[in-house]
Amino acid sequence: MGFDSAKFVTSVTDDKKCLLCHGVLDNPVRSACGHVFCSGCILPWVVKHGQRPQKCRPLGPTDLENVLPLREVILNLKVKCEFFDRGWTHAVRLTDLIRHTQRCEFKPVACVNPGCGQLVPKKDIYLHETVTCPCRPIGECDKGCGLVLHLHTLADHDCYQALKVLVRTQEEQLKELKEKLALVSTKFSKKEKSLLEQVSALNRQLGEQTEQFNGTIKDVK
């Protein structure tokens, strides 16, 4: 399937478009009669029909040749960033688009603060999570539970209830780990013994934390 011509900064001429999907050529290949297609478009067609889409003569996969010079020309065309509408105004080469998209400072990133999840441009995520987010952490509770408090739950915070929820969550995690351990333990070889030991250590750690929080609950209560 070819590239969407609307993503390109300048109009793309028809000689750079696939005769099947009409998009800008992706990995162009050429038939003996000179027609050019995206490899991903023409190969399934050939397998199914055994002839050119123009029905001018029979065609097999071995009758197609890569058009590398044309491919290089297309890869060097300028395209709009995926996040163009979010503020990125510079054009990038098609060949650099994937790498740019991964690093673009306007790429939306989900806030990690519990209860938020808002999508924020990558360049602003730190400021959002630490300063402007209504669910941002504001420090540890000084009333005895020691849990991290978040702005949106501050008014309703109850040490006893919060610790109960935490213990219940950890107990569920512990149960899930034990079930997974029981399910896969028979499949592990001696080489994977260390992994089992790590899981067991995590089980013990969660168990100790649960006991610790249960003790804290009693103190708070």
From TrEMBL:
RING-type domain segment(s): 18-56
InterPro entries (UniProt xref): Znf_RING (IPR001841), Znf_RING/FYVE/PHD (IPR013083), Znf_RING_CS (IPR017907)
GO molecular function, one term: zinc ion binding
Biological-process GO terms, alphabetical: regulation of canonical NF-kappaB signal transduction
Keyword field: Coiled coil, Metal-binding, Zinc, Zinc-finger
Residue spans crossing the bilayer: none
Sections of the chain in a coiled coil: 160-212
Short name of any one Pfam family annotated for the protein: zf-C3HC4_2
Name of the molecule in the record: RING-type domain-containing protein
Source organism of the structure: Lymnaea stagnalis (Great pond snail)
